[in-house]
Amino acid sequence: MTTPEPGDAVLRGALVEALRLKGCLRSPALAEAFGAVPRHLFIPHVAVEEAYRDRHIVTKRLPDGEAISSCSQPYIMAVMLDQLDVRPGHRVLEIGAGTGYNAALLAHLVGAAGRVTTIDIDADTAAAARAHLDSAGVIGVRVICGDQVALGELQAEAGGSLEGPRPGATHLLLTEHRTPAQDCPRRRGEEPRWHLTSPWSC
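and the corresponding structure tokens:
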């Protein structure tokens, strides 16, 4: 990952502290991820100071003005990632690439031994996510533009399905919705485990 500028580091530190005060950074690894990943590189159309406020940023609209994609509020993302309980070495399939920021956080959490794949049906969104990840110097993330056929192929490759994993596999599934959604219950059990979570927004 690229070395951040000092000013950006200060802003990220302030965001981490704000999230910690809200009680959503319950693990040192998660706090470290938010402190390391430069959010402003994933939403380059806004000012750097704006990028580190705890609010969502709309990134794509339909011709009628309806928002269809955004960079989620950091608080929501922190809650989501805490629920996911991602660990070093995990392989994560993210449905809905967004800006690529969440995939970058995931890549930081899974480490060099893990892998993140993010898929989006919208070509512009997928291309932008790839460009943002490259700009930030993030490695270990595969970005795919595809539909349910591509998703099925990825599931088969991972050795599991939306319903659960193949015995002996340890994978995580992260779903992102473009419409409001309720928090989904997570399956918890002995390792290996399969987590399903929803961040309420994309």
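(Above: one complete record from the training split.) The radius of gyration is 16 Å.
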